[in-house]
């Protein structure tokens, strides 16, 4: 048996042991998801690892995902787990590699605005912020003129709304799919506007 075939067999045995209704395509999809959103390191970091090591690493990553989202599964890929992976979500990773860079706001009161949003969208956005901020020491208010957090609808390849941030955003939208929005971390700069983009084709259903 070749190394690739052995790796596939071990992976399927480890991850689909109880979920007989799932296929290898589901396992491959789960592996891509775990790698994309930070639960699993990039393949290049494991090129010299054995097939068993790779399969075990994937199993550990799946366990971490299930713990993160409060799912049962015991390292086994279940229908419930794959359904959670297919939900609409932000494109930013859940688990981030350690970085010495400061990623915090330089002040405790922040302002926000949702560009060209209607009243219902503004009300929904305010409610969403409230859920998070009630667990934080930060405070928040809306400021249409000088927001710290600027939200906007975008589609395809798009530019930053605030020209001080640069030219084109490095994360274009690719149309209907699981990713409905993306954002950027604060950098600690006192006057930087942090932008949040919502896919225009999905915005009305968010």
Helices, strands, pairings?
Blueprint: H1 3-15, H2 24-36, H3 51-68, H4 79-85, E1 89-90, E2 109-114, H5 119-133, E3 139-142, E4 149-154, E5 179-183, E6 194-199
Parallel strand pairs: 1-5, 2-3, 2-4, 4-6
Antiparallel strand pairs: 5-6
Helix pairs in contact: 1-3
Task: Walk me through the structure.
The chain contains five helices and six strands. By secondary structure, it is α/β, with parallel strands linked by helices. Strands 1-5-6-4-2-3 form a six-stranded mixed beta sheet, with helices on one face. It is elongated. The model has no long low-confidence stretch (mean pLDDT 77). This is Matrix metalloproteinase-24. Residues 104-189 form the Peptidase M10 metallopeptidase domain. Pfam families: Peptidase_M10. One of its GO terms (cellular component) is extracellular matrix.
Helix content: 25-40%
So how many helices? 5
Strand order of the largest sheet: 1-5-6-4-2-3
Number of strands: 6
In total, the number of domains comes to 2
Name given to the CATH architecture of the largest domain: 3-Layer(aba) Sandwich
| Largest pleated sheet | 6 strands, mixed
Give the CA-based shape: elongated
Question: CATH topology of the largest domain, which one?
Answer: Collagenase (Catalytic Domain)
Beta-strand percentage range: 5-15%
Specify Rg, calculated over alpha carbons: 20 Å
């Amino acid at each position: 048996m070749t190394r690739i075939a052995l790796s596939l067999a071990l992976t399927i045995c480890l991850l689909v042991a109880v979920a007989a209704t799932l296929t290898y395509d589901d396992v491959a999809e789960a592996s891509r998801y775990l790698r994309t959103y930070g639960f699993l390191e990039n393949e290049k970091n494991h090129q010299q690892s054995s097939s068993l090591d790779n399969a075990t690493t994937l199993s550990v990553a799946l366990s971490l995902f299930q713990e993160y989202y409060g799912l049962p599964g015991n390292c086994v890929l279940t229908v419930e787990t794959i359904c959670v992976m297919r939900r609409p979500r932000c494109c930013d990773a859940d688990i981030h590699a350690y970085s010495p860079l400061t990623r915090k706001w330089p002040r405790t009161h922040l302002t926000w605005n949702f560009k060209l949003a209607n009243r219902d969208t503004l009300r929904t956005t305010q409610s969403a912020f409230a859920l998070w901020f009630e667990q934080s020491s930060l405070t928040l208010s809306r400021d249409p003129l000088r927001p710290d957090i600027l939200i906007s609808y975008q589609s395809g390849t798009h530019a930053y709304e605030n020209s001080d941030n640069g030219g084109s955003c490095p994360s274009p939208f690719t149309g209907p799919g699981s990713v409905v929005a993306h954002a950027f971390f604060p950098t600690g700069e006192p006057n930087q506007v942090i932008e949040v983009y919502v896919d225009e084709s999905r915005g009305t259903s968010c």
